[in-house]
Design a protein that fits this description.
Growth Hormone, Chain: A, two-stranded antiparallel sheet, 2 strands, 78% helix
């Protein structure tokens, strides 16, 4: 089939759908906090529980992707998701805060369901080296769209707040239209009828991971997935807290989201650099440094009342988070041939982090209502425990490797 011989057109369409989905997700999962702060005067005590609830339904949506894809082909499932998300987005523009929360939670669950499907379509059939390139492009697409959307959503909120719902709906309608002409073929692998760009053995000599790299890749996958939830605990808690920070409050809505998006821009740049090299494929313990940098950067962003300090710490945070995210997605897919189940697990870990971070932050504020830094301390504690767990896992792996090296070679 033409799509099988030339997957570029197919992949471009999937990346386009992914980018449009990212527009809606970032408006209604990150920009919503600035919207609620401006329109309904919500602070951290309201935004943090909302963010934690988003994480809970995100896990449900991510884990539902694999079983749903076994019964509904991916083209049809993605079409249903985007049509429904468009309807929910529009409905948010006509209701009050309580109903916005209800509709928003339904939206987030559906949004989470789409990512494992798209990640699987991008990944299946590629060898480790081609997979690295595809995932790099995938990360550049969604992170670039996310940064641009978040940076400019303050302009929409400042001039016409309900506009974020209309823009999100338009993005999902466009995704639905892009999904209509996707080529189909008899069902394969989980009931999908999309003509996947699968390589033949003659096209790629690396359809399975190189045996000598499996131990390093396994360690990198384990470390990245230990710290991944904690990094998203930081992301989601920071998203809820950001509108209330002194530096942000002193800015206009357009300036506020632009300043708050610096870490997203930095993460995008990190994805660019990671796509140009493979040094991180064999250095799993660099993830420990990334986790430590994330912890320091979170404290720097939230506790130091300086615009320049906030920018510098966000740059460091973006690079660290970019490495952790890339490692979790890459090593999970390369060790599983891009299975939807593994990608769903990756997304579910993101959801777990988005429950823990804002949830613990909200609880800390409830217990210490007179201490505005209580939520920051709680989130920092989560990341500290994650860093400790990853360090212990790395030490255990190193000792195991040394013990195996000391064994006599069998004759």
């Amino acid at each position: 089939m033409p799509a099988a011989r030339s997957p570029i057109r197919f992949l471009a369409k999937v990346y386009s759908i992914q980018s449009l989905g990212s527009v809606g997700a970032n408006l209604l999962m990150y920009g919503i906090f600035f919207y609620m702060h401006k329109v309904y005067a919500w602070g951290a005590s309201q935004n943090l529980p909302l963010s934690s609830a988003q994480g809970a339904v995100y896990v449900i949506g991510a884990l539902a992707a694999n079983p749903l894809s076994r019964h509904i082909d991916r083209q049809q499932l993605l079409r249903i998701l985007h049509i429904t998300m468009a309807v929910l987005s529009i409905a948010c523009a006509f209701v009050g805060p309580a109903m916005i929360v209800v509709l928003l939670l339904g939206y987030v669950m559906l949004s989470a369901c789409q990512w494992p499907l798209l990640e699987s379509l991008v990944s299946i059939g590629a060898g480790p080296h081609q997979l690295s390139r595809r995932i790099s492009i995938y990360n550049l697409v969604w992170s670039g769209t996310a940064a641009a959307t978040y940076a400019t959503c303050g302009l929409i909120i400042g001039r016409f707040p309900p506009g974020i719902f209309y823009v999100a709906a338009a993005a999902h309608v466009a995704s639905t239209l892009l999904l209509l002409p996707l080529p189909k073929r008899p069902p394969r692998r989980g009931g999908s009828s999309i003509d996947l760009p699968i390589e033949s053995p003659s096209q790629s000599p690396h359809l399975t991971p190189e045996p000598e790299l499996i131990p390093l890749r396994t360690l990198a996958k384990r470390l990245s997935r230990i710290v991944l939830p904690a990094t998203f605990a930081v992301i989601y808690a920071l998203g809820a807290i950001m509108p209330t920070l002194k530096v942000i409050r002193s800015a206009t809505p357009a300036q506020a989201t632009l300043l708050a998006s610096v870490w997203m821009m930095s993460r995008w740049l990190c994805f660019v650099l990671l796509g140009m090299t493979i040094w991180w494929h064999t250095r799993p313990r660099a993830l420990l440094i990334a986790a430590a940098v994330t912890l320091a950067a979170f404290l720097g962003v939230t506790l130091i009342n300086s615009m320049y300090s906030m920018i510098l710490w966000q740059i460091a945070m973006g690079f660290a988070m970019g490495l952790i995210y890339s490692a979790s997605l890459y090593f999970g897919t390369v060790l599983s041939d891009g299975s939807t189940a593994q990608n769903a697990y990756h997304e579910a870990l993101i959801g777990v982090g988005s429950i823990l971070g804002p949830g613990c932050g909200a609880l800390a504020l409830y217990l210490r209502p007179n201490n505005p830094r209580a939520s920051i301390t709680a989130v920092a504690a989560i990341l500290s425990l994650s860093l400790l767990a990853a360090s212990l896992s790395s030490i255990k792996s190193r000792r195991k490797s040394r013990a195996e090296e000391s064994l006599p070679t069998p004759i």
